[in-house]
Design a protein that fits this description.
The protein has seven helices and two strands; from the N terminus they run αααβααβαα. With 182 residues, the protein is mainly alpha-helical. A two-stranded antiparallel sheet has the order 1-2.
Length: 182
C-alpha cells in the first residue's frame, strides 16, 4: 500500500536526550544501536518466516543492521579534492571538516537501524526481495516485509523503548564506573 503513513507518539524524548547528553556521542550511539538491533531481531525473524519460499535465499538474506552514518557528503568532498588535484592529506582534511559541519547540523546522538534484505552474492539478490514486496508493472506484489511489520509493530516499539532505557542506563553505569561521564 504505497503512500501509507504511520503515526505514533513518543513521550520522554527530552529525558532521553538529557541522559544521552551525559555520554560521549560514540557511547550513546552504540547504546542506541544495540537497543535497536536487539529490538528489531524478532521482527526480522517474522519477516524471514513470511518471506516467499522458492530457493530460501530471500529469507536468508533478511538481516538487521546499523548504518553508522550517511557519509555521502564526506565522500563527495574527498572525491572533489582529489579530482581538483589536491593531495590525499587535503582530501582527508576536507572529509574531516565536512563531518564536523554535519555533526553541528545533526546535533543529537542518533542511530539508524534497518531490517530487510541485504546484499548477498549480488545486488540482484536485494532487488529480487524488493520485487517480491512491491511487485512490478507485470508482477503482482507478494508482501512479506510490510505484513510482518504490521503484525509486530506494537511489540517492536515496546521492545525498543525497553531496550533503549536499559542500554542507555547501562552505558551511564559503565561510564560512571570508569569516571568518564560528561
Amino acid at each position: 500500500m504505497a503512500g501509507r503513513n504511520a503515526t505514533f507518539s513518543v513521550a520522554g524524548m527530552s529525558e532521553l536526550k538529557a541522559q544521552l547528553d551525559r555520554l560521549s556521542r560514540a557511547v550513546g550511539r552504540r547504546a542506541l544501536e544495540r537497543a535497536g538491533v536487539e529490538a528489531a531481531e524478532p521482527t526480522a525473524r517474522l519477516m524471514r518466516q513470511l518471506a516467499p519460499r522458492d530457493t530460501g535465499e530471500l529469507a536468508e538474506s533478511i538481516d538487521v543492521g546499523v548504518s553508522t552514518s550517511n557519509d555521502d557528503a564526506g565522500l563527495r568532498g574527498y572525491a572533489d579534492v582529489m579530482r581538483s588535484g589536491g593531495s590525499a592529506a587535503d582530501a582527508v582534511a576536507a572529509v574531516r571538516d565536512i563531518r564536523r559541519a554535519e555533526r553541528g547540523v545533526r546535533g543529537d546522538t542518533f542511530a539508524t537501524v534497518f531490517i530487510g534484505p541485504v546484499a548477498g552474492r549480488s545486488r540482484d539478490d536485494v532487488i529480487k526481495g524488493y520485487v517480491q514486496e512491491f511487485g512490478t508493472a507485470t508482477r503482482a506484489p507478494n508482501s512479506y516485509l510490510r505484513v510482518a511489520f504490521e503484525q509486530d509493530k506494537d511489540n517492536l516499539l515496546l521492545r525498543l523503548s525497553e531496550n533503549v532505557r536499559f542500554e542507555v542506563f547501562a552505558a551511564i553505569g559503565r561510564a560512571q564506573a570508569r569516571g568518564r561521564l560528561s
